[in-house]
């Protein structure tokens, strides 16, 4: 895998597991993160299929988590309006809104020693949306994994995305929110059409279009 995608994949995975947390302990959290990371990795390999694509996104930047945070009600308090603004303190970025949505803003470092929320600038909204599509549709996950397994990023590697494509009971118990189509729909629907078009284009004109599974 291109090192240029590693920070984007890590940040987008972190955003997903924070926005849709597990109710279990450390083991469940690890299983949920593994599923999210595999989904984001497949999405990244599809969206940025070559090393050049990966290098360009590292230079240009993936866009950040601002709109995703607003959709889920977990926008960080430091980016919310001031108390004199009409939307404060009840706006989407307020501590009250985050608390009511059960999605508290607790910044975590992207790297050891990094105590601010800079990692959120590395979140890729499109990858989060595509990963949501993959986590909630076994058909799309199978098709996408089959495609990226033939791509440049997987060349010379043994790729295993079974936690994404073949989750067992423990996996499903660990990630009920990440696997819930209705709960994930606001994120998945953001870029679902683009994802389906990319997947169909990658598969070639001789193959059947992938069903949207809406």
Class of secondary structure makeup: mainly alpha
Name the assembly state: single chain
The major sheet is characterized as: none
Radius of gyration: 17 Å
**Overall pLDDT, averaged?**
82
Residue windows where pLDDT falls under 50 for at least 5 positions: 79-115
Order of helices and strands: HHHHHHHHHHH
Structural overview:
This protein is mainly α and 214 residues long. It folds into two domains: 3-64 and 124-203, no CATH class; 66-122, no CATH class. The chain contains eleven helices and no strands. Helix 1 packs across helix 2. The longest helix has 22 residues, at 26-47. The protein is globular. The two termini are 31 Å apart. 41% of the residues are buried. The model is unreliable at 79-115 (pLDDT under 50).
Q: In short, what is this structure?
A:
The protein is 52% helix and 0% strand. With 214 residues, it is mainly α. The protein has two domains: 3-64 and 124-203, no CATH class; 66-122, no CATH class.
Tags for this model:
mainly alpha, 11 helices, 2 domains
What topology emerges from the helices and strands here?
Layout: H1 6-19, H2 26-47, H3 51-60, H4 66-72, H5 95-100, H6 125-136, H7 138-148, H8 162-165, H9 169-174, H10 181-188, H11 192-203
Helix pairs in contact: 1-2, 2-6, 2-7, 6-7, 6-10
């Amino acid at each position: 895998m291109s090192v240029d995608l590693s920070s984007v994949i890590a940040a987008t995975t972190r955003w997903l597991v924070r926005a849709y947390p597990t109710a279990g302990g450390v083991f469940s959290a690890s299983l949920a993160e593994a599923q999210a990371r595999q989904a984001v990795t497949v999405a990244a390999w599809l969206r940025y299929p070559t090393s050049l694509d990966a290098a360009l996104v590292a230079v240009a930047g993936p866009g950040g988590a601002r709109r995703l945070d607003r959709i889920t009600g977990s926008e960080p308090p430091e980016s919310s309006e001031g108390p004199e603004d009409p939307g404060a303190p009840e706006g989407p970025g307020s501590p009250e809104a985050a608390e009511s949505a059960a999605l508290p803003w607790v910044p975590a470092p992207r790297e050891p020693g990094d105590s601010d929320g800079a990692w959120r600038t590395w979140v890729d909204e499109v990858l989060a949306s595509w990963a949501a599509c993959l986590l909630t549709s076994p058909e799309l996950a199978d098709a996408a994994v089959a495609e990226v397994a033939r791509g440049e990023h997987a060349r010379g590697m043994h790729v295993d995305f079974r936690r994404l494509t073949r989750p067992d009971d423990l996996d499903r118990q660990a990630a009920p929110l990440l696997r819930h189509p209705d709960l994930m729909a606001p994120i998945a629907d953001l870029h679902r059409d683009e994802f389906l078009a990319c997947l169909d284009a990658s598969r070639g004109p001789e193959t059947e279009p992938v069903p949207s599974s809406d």
